[in-house]
Amino acid sequence: xxxxxxxxxxxIGATQAQIVVNSALPITKRIFINPIISQKTNGTRAMYxxxxxxxxxxxxxxxxxxxxxxxxxxxxxxxxxxSDFAYDxxxxxxxxxxxxxxxxxxxxxxxTSGAPLFSDADVINMIFVEIVPGFSAVDDNTSNxxxxxxxxxxxxxxxxxxxxxxxxxxxxxxxxxxEIGHNLGLPHEANNGPNLMSPSGTTKQLTTxxxxxxxxxxxxxxxxxxxxxxxxxxNHFQVG
Length: 240
Prior knowledge:
The chain is α/β, with parallel strands linked by helices. Helix content is 21%, strand content 18%. Strand 2, helix 1 (52-66) and strand 3 (71-75) form a beta-alpha-beta unit. Strands 1, 2, 3, 4, 5, 6, 7 and 8 form an eight-stranded mixed beta sheet that branches.
């Protein structure tokens, strides 16, 4: 089934241009993101979105991108997960240039992993790590991610240098929005194209056809189930 296919995004470096999108649609749906920040037992912590000002900048840009589909994205309070494995696959951290097993994404998002996951379909669990499954380690000027298409699972790496300047913040927003797009059912488009789902894409635009996919309700639990009528507030932030 499609919801178990893993889709990777291409690493995007610090030369990301200004965010270019199509006009927003009326906001009718809201998505909740549960950000889980992995941390090693020695206290080393994966990068999230920087300080409060940088975080708001990134979140506003993600909402700008997803507004093309009439979707509001709400990031819930971040949760720390102390897990050497989640952070960098310890004790089996891959050597330089060697990719981390892609299957680690499913392992991290399994009910037995110990991660503070939301079990209900209306919250997307997004784990921030040092090494993204399916990739080798990247430098501090890079953000990348891995997501499950039409299902609930995302892992993201944020290079610590990116939060220090606007183009870097745009890179982070583009990568995160790209991975959310996968969870909402969107596959990759052709490389280097004017589209959010294009690896190394030149813009963050979405097409009418892609919006149709996003709002298609497939059988079982799929990306459609994460969308709630806007405005919508969760009255609790409990996991499990």
